[in-house]
Design a protein that fits this description.
The complex is a heterodimer of chains A (461) and B (55). Chain A has 461 residues and is mainly alpha-helical. Chain A is built from 19 helices and no strands. Helix content of chain B is 87%, strand content 0%. The chains are: A mainly alpha (461), B mainly alpha (55).
Chain lengths: 461, 55
């Protein structure tokens, strides 16, 4: 992450939360390239990459599907987020407050905070998996979502989680700066892990690589049963795994610092480093492990240890920690509004850290990361649809733009209904009908957008 | 400053990335690769904060 990125984050944390960013603080589009490069090479990549192989994705589908999905994600940032960010120069939360009212934004914040906690919990599991390696403590993933691993591994998760929570509360900025230092190193280590895995598989041609990959899938499926993770599923997943950031407009808070809409191209390098190179390299590590030991468990610590030794252990711990740190911190800020004003300012962060630690104790949750990120986008993404139609259609279709701000309302019921009804339907299909969560993101986003326009017209607002 | 940047670049470019390529090509033993990577990692984290902070 570049220094400009640090500056953007620091400014974003305090100044201009309720005013447009002044022109003197705006950054050129190239500043965003460096920032996103660090953002998308994170602890989650160690977990997500191997899950593609474990889910039965073919290597050809993975290579082409990720390419297409990442391009679609970049285009979404460029053409959905950047124009609104550059035009209004407001954070997501203030933009949403102007439309939905401050009480509804609090509810959105808490939902966001809870989801952040589960993401941070997965990162605590990832870091703990590496901490346990030197002590000979590995983790098994129980079949039950809320099943525990060994008591020793649960103990490591609790220790790692509590340390992360305390550090996030007391030294967020220090870890954030450390994350900036670590980012380029981490990207190189991801590449080294991939090369090392290829060496372990004794790959010497494309054909032998494809053969080893297919053998890996055969072993996984002989144990877990037949699974299918086809081309379009990969495309949709890689497009929408960051849906909360682009379709959901969370990155308005970052791109409001952009001089022009070219900042929307900012995620391009980061996406291809983190969500292409890193995912594929991480998946090679599992293929190599299967060839060497027959073990199909996607344990990031063990995979990295096998590939590059102590460097891998350090990388997994750093990647998990530097991802969990801002996640716990942001969740904490969201929870802080639940505490009385007399409460300590770190109460929210500690609460978030405790919830994340509790989530991290259940390894199956991190094993469900492919589902979780889709769920995350399904729940938070639709609010971006409301912002989108408020920006582009309010004046054209003759309903009040920034309704809560203009009418002095604290709670815009139209936003609540437009958000909850499609999301409730999406969750029903996901949990009751077994729909792959990423598939629900765009239908929910479109439904929320249309529903908001419909309700606002019905209200004659 | 330039020297520090060079050391950081060499730490990750040579001691981590290049050795993993050499290992893939069969020109370097796995154990030596792992030691080289650890040295590269330590060098990166010792040297980089100095010039990154200055910038």
């Amino acid at each position: 992450m570049s220094d400009t990125a640090v500056e953007i984050e620091e400014i974003g944390g305090g100044e201009f939360e309720r005013t447009p960013v002044p022109s003197s603080k705006l950054k050129g589009w190239k500043s965003f390239l460096g920032m996103y490069a660090g953002e998308h090479a994170a602890g989650t990549e160690f977990m997500i990459g191997p899950l593609f192989l474990a889910a039965g994705a073919s290597l050809k589908d993975l290579a082409i599907g990720l390419l297409l999905g990442n391009i679609l994600a970049i285009l979404t940032w460029r053409y959905i987020v950047a124009p609104i960010a550059v035009s209004n120069k407001l954070t997501l939360y203030y933009q949403l407050e102007k439309i939905a009212g401050k009480h509804l934004v609090k509810i959105y914040n808490v939902v966001n905070g809870v989801l952040f906690c589960f993401l941070a919990g997965a990162m605590i599991t990832v870091s703990a998996s590496a901490v346990g390696i030197p002590f000979g403590i590995s983790f098994s993933v129980p079949d039950d979502v809320f099943g525990l691993s060994s008591p020793a591994f649960s103990g490591i998760v609790i220790i790692v989680g509590l340390i992360m929570a305390i550090v996030a509360a007391a030294g967020y900025n220090t870890v954030s700066k450390f994350a900036n230092i670590a980012a380029p190193w981490m990207i190189i280590v991801f590449a080294a892990c991939g090369l090392s895995a290829l060496t372990q598989m004794e790959v010497n041609s494309w054909d032998s690589l494809f053969a080893e990959w297919d053998k890996g899938i055969d072993v996984v499926q002989s144990i877990n049963g037949k699974a299918d993770f086809g081309f379009w599923k990969i495309v949709i997943f890689s497009w929408l795994c960051n849906a909360a950031m682009h379709f959901g407009m969370a990155d308005l808070s970052i791109m409001r610092f952009a001089k022009d809409t070219r900042a929307g191209w900012g995620p391009s390098i980061g996406m291809f480093l983190g969500h292409y190179m890193a995912w594929i390299c991480a998946s090679f590590m599992l293929a190599a492990q299967i060839k060497l030991t027959g073990d199909i468990s996607a344990n990031p610590g063990a995979l990295a240890w096998s590939a590059v030794g102590w460097t891998g252990i350090i990388c997994v711990i750093v990647a998990g920690w530097t991802t969990a740190n801002p996640t716990i911190y942001r969740a904490g800020l969201a929870f802080q509004s639940l505490f009385p004003s007399s409460a300590k300012k770190y109460s929210g962060v500690i609460l978030a850290g405790l919830i994340a630690t509790a989530a991290g104790i259940f390894p199956a949750l991190s094993g469900k990361l492919l589902d979780f990120v889709g769920l995350y986008g399904t729940i938070l993404g639709p609010m971006g649809g409301v912002i989108f139609v408020n920006h582009y259609l309010a004046k054209k279709m003759n309903f009040t733009q920034d309704y809560a701000d203009n009418k002095g309302a604290n709670f815009n019921i139209a936003v609540l209904l437009a958000w909850l009804l499609p999301v409730a339907l999406g969750l029903y299909f996901i949990f009751a009908k077994g729909l792959f969560p990423a598939y629900a993101v765009i239908p929910c986003w479109i439904a929320s957008s249309l529903l908001y326009v419909f309700i606002m017209k019905l209200k004659k607002s | 400053m330039k020297m520090l940047k060079l050391i950081s670049g060499l730490a990750i470019g040579v001691l981590i990335l290049l050795v993993s390529i050499l290992s893939f090509l069969g020109s370097m033993e796995v154990d030596n690769v792992k030691i080289s990577m650890l040295i590269g990692t330590i060098l990166w984290f010792v040297v980089t904060p100095f010039w990154l902070k200055e910038e």
